Amino acid sequence: MLELLISSSFRRSSSSALTGGGTGSYRPAGSKFLVLKTGLGFFVFVFFWGCFFFFSDNCHMTFSQHLQLSFFHQIKACDCITFSGNNKLSSSPSSSHQEHRGLLSVRYPMEHGIVTDWNDMERIWQYVYSKEQLQTFSEEHPVLLTEAPLNPSKNREKAAEVFFETFNVPALFISMQAVLSLYATGRTTGVVLDSGDGVTHVVPIYEGFAIPHSIMRVDIAGRDVSRYLRLLLRKEGYNFNTSAEFEVVRTIKERACYLSLNPQKDETLETEKAQYVLPDGSTLNIGPARFRAPELLFRPDLIGDESSGIHEVLAYAIQKSDMDLRRTLFSTIVLCGGSTLIKGFGERLLTEVKKLAPKDVKIKISAPQERLYSTWIGGSILASLDTFKKMWVSKREYEEDRARAIHRKTF
After folding, report:
1. Which distant-in-sequence residues (6+ apart) come within 8 Å of 359 by Cβ?
2. pLDDT value of residue 25
3. What are the pLDDT digits (tens) for 308-320?
């Protein structure tokens, strides 16, 4: 899903009206800025005025991040077609597709944190500015865009090209998701484990800056759990074949799955089955697949993947950090991302990390309730700071130095 949060209550002061300076300093007076998290399963984006903001319970909207393709029309590979409410064809990822998802093919423009279809990605970004959502012009507002660590530099360069040359944004900044998630907790030192829909990464951070040689990444995350759950359900006699039905599997994962503290023991017991009502009204009884599917996060070998489990990746990232920092990092583990919301995730992670950490080290895991949106919250805080105006890459800088301007100011 694509989540849109817009704060409906703002407090403005004269200090929040920042004017643009010379090269390397940008923020037009009184301008709103856009914080955009480009995720695989959902997006988070918001407008803010200046430095002060509040959260509101009545400003939460959702729409789908993925694109739909009609089964009944001859189209090119790059055409993204969905049905609108009046049954006319539209090339935007509108929310009305939910009513017709059985007639549509779902596809994602990203895979493992990397954009694989820029035409589709551009359409989704265009939808952000459309009359259905923000109802504004991209030329008027700077953008803070987030991305996963260790992404190819070409991915970042192409994103900058699209925003500057297609959307003509006045300024852009691209930041690492994990750093922003730590900011959201009020900390500047710690280690962030971010497990979303397409990628899991661990980032040790000291005084607000990621430690590059300690960053770890594994391409096992929520979508892989959904695929594995689909396989397990097929073995139990339930088939989900189409891309639209895969979204049903994803919902089942979110509502019924959990992580067991002792999966070997649970395998020998008769697991209590959970009932899930499918969109057609029939009932699905889910047994051991409830805990077997998310077990993939800790045991990628279940699908023949040679990657390390996320607990091993976390411990290794800390061990790669400076010896004087390790004790602090073990006591400041911060979770974020949708996959960490699986029931029992924190408890299971703590159990596994204890086995790998030195015995005299205190381990503390922080799992904020708002961790699904922590990257966005941290980005909103960062972009609201008066000192941040020097970090924006202005359109003039980009035109002069192109990709070098982006890499020069990327965390």
Report:
1. none
2. 56
3. 999 999 999 999 9
**Other residues' Cβ atoms within 10 Å of the Cβ of residue 154:** 11
Contact 335, 375 (CB under 8 A): no
State both tokens at 132: 């259905």
| pLDDT at residue 113 in the model | 86
Q: How confident is the model at residue 73, as a pLDDT? A: 30
Q: Tokens in use for 307?
A: 């990657």
Residue 197's CB is within 10 A of a number of other CB atoms, namely 23
CATH T-level fold of 184-220+308-369: Nucleotidyltransferase; domain 5 (3.30.420)
Q: Give yes or no for residue 406 having a pLDDT over 80.
A: yes
Highest averaged pLDDT of the listed ranges 127-136, 161-170, 367-376: 161-170
Reading the block at residue 230, the tokens are 């689909």
Give the highest mean pLDDT range of 65-74, 161-170, 401-410: 161-170
Domain at 222-300: CATH architecture: Alpha-Beta Complex (3.90)
**Best CA proximity match to 298, nearest among 263, 250, 337:** 263
* Residues 247/100, Cβ–Cβ less than 8 Å: no
* 383 in Cβ contact with 393 (< 8 Å): no
Two tokens, residue 244? 């639209």
SS3 351: helix
Q: Which CATH number fits domain 2-66+108-176+372-408: 2.60.40.1180, 3.30.70.1350, 3.30.420.40, 1.10.3110.10?
A: 3.30.420.40
At a CB cut-off of 8 Å and minimum separation 6, what does 29 contact? 17, 18, 19
Q: What is the average pLDDT value for the chain, to the nearest integer?
A: 80
Is 81 in contact with 75 (CB distance < 8 Å)? Answer: yes
